[in-house]
């Protein structure tokens, strides 16, 4: 029995991908790993629970949401635009990282992660959260609750939550327009 | 002129009679009490103590705490909002607090509440309290419930006032409602049937008040007892038909239905929406003997027999034909084409299957097998087999929050797809899934999806 394949076209890290024939039923994370060698997105539970495999989905209206790549088929992203962990930092012409995003830098400054397996998902989740704050700021007193509510689904087995949350808090406080008094 | 005068007198007399009759109803003159004699005498401490365990089990059967507690709130302290077209009712404190709860109720008061729907002070209860069903409870069981509730920790939490029309002095108008909607029902007592069936019937028709949700309502929001357990509607969801014929059609037998009631999880799917709280507070905590009795009663047909469960519906030919277009040329081609016409075009089904594969299969499985403790199986799922696709569409649009079930089981949150798939895609997806696993050929239309309520934005 041969695999049923269908053409897939999408945008990944601002670059067009496809059309390329991809099997129906192939999870997005396998497509990223196997077809594009984008291995920074980590496969965790495979059941949509741990959120390690989360990437950003960039909506046509400019907003962003989180998407889990282990439970969604590659074809679920047909015609869409996503950002994987490889597409966050600014790079030079040779592809070398020139500057990390404020979220990435804050995670390093706060020693947020230990083994790092969940980090790609946390970067996606925190970046989406900061983007949402810019659109809809929260009161300073409610910031910590908002961070918890937003990143609650992301599991870190090294239990580095506090340092992740502190890093996100520092980015929110340092980014104009995220927090109101 | 004289005949006109006579007519006027007759009309006037009729009017007076009608008004007198209405006043009589209003003041409860037609309200006969069904409270057993002898309950004026209080129970002794020893009796109260002995009755408690039985009362606890009956309180679980009645799902009393499901409505008389707020989520995360203290058990039995009331305050849960119950929306009606006329305003919001709030469940009351049923802990034995003397000021805010039922601490001041005598044994006779308590009997009157459960048998007649009348609280102390001659106050009519609103039928949100299922006294139409608790009415069937035997006096000795009401005593047991009384003993149990009086043993709960009293909680000094004030009742929340009702809103809307219920702020007005309208309680007594329930006497009219009762006259039309509160028949003097008795527990099933067919001597030919087993003790288990009789026990199940007593619980289902009485305290368990299954029919309060699973039976259609009449225009007065009363239970239509002429269509028992044929399915209803509550909180924007279609409540499934649970007649014996339908349950066996869905593949239930006593084992699997008991498993569903005790754990919330069965091959036919997992409890969600209102039934999830019923499993949580009631059926999941009941004694296994009572659960099996309920399952036995529900599955027993009018002939007194439990029919063999039906096999899960085979994929409709249209669904198969859409998978492999070549099969349209086989001997079954004509039938397949005919069903394809009834189900919607093959192209729609192909699109629906691809949407399922890309958006759903990651958790629910390429073959609808699901993942234990993460996502329920779609193959054999009774929600897909309902003639009305309402609940299926609602879940696809709005998702289901993470659920925990008895025995440490769980199902992980399903996201709503209202913003991830178009109405057209959801319609195609639902059409295909129903044809593939539910035996339902009727296509779901884009307009049907568009008309559905959405939980956010």
Describe the structure using short key phrases.
heterodimer, A: 181 residues, alpha/beta, Ubiquitin-like (UB roll), DNA polymerase, domain 1, 2 domains, two-stranded antiparallel sheet, 5 helices, globular, B: 457 residues, mainly alpha, Cytochrome Bc1 Complex, Chain D, domain 2, two-stranded antiparallel ribbon, 19 helices, 44% helix, 6% strand
Walkthrough of the structure:
The complex is a heterodimer of chains A (181) and B (457). In chain A, 30% of the residues lie in helices and 22% in strands. Chain A has helices spanning 28-34, 102-109, 119-135, 143-151, 161-174; strands at residues 5-12, 15-23, 54-58, 64-68, 81-83, 90-91, 97-99, 138-139, 179-180. Chain A has a five-stranded mixed beta sheet with strand order 2-1-5-3-4, with helices on one face. In chain A, strands 6-7 form a two-stranded antiparallel sheet. Chain A has a two-stranded parallel ribbon with strand order 8-9. With 457 residues, chain B is mainly alpha-helical. Chain B is 44% helix and 6% strand. In chain B, the strands form five sheets. A two-stranded antiparallel sheet of chain B has the order 1-2. In chain B, strands 3-4 form a two-stranded antiparallel ribbon. Chain B is globular. Chain A binds chain B through residues 6, 24-25, 27, 47-49, 70-76, 78, and chain B through 354, 357-359, 361-363, 366, 371, 374-375, 412.
What structural class is derived from the secondary structure elements of chain A? alpha/beta
For CATH, the homologous superfamily of the largest domain in chain B is named as Cytochrome c-like domain
Mean pLDDT of chain B: 90
CA-based shape of chain B? globular
SSE pattern of chain A: EEHEEEEEHHEHHE
- Record the strand order, biggest sheet of chain A: 2-1-5-3-4
Are there runs of chain B of 5+ residues with pLDDT below 50, and where?
320-342
Q: Determine the number of helices of chain B (DSSP H or I, runs of at least 4 residues).
A: 19
The figure for the number of domains of chain A is 2
- CATH fold-level name of the largest domain in chain A: Ubiquitin-like (UB roll)
Q: Strand order, biggest sheet of chain B?
A: 1-2
Separation, N- and C-terminal Cα atoms of chain B: 68 Å
**Major sheet characteristics of chain A:** 5 strands, mixed
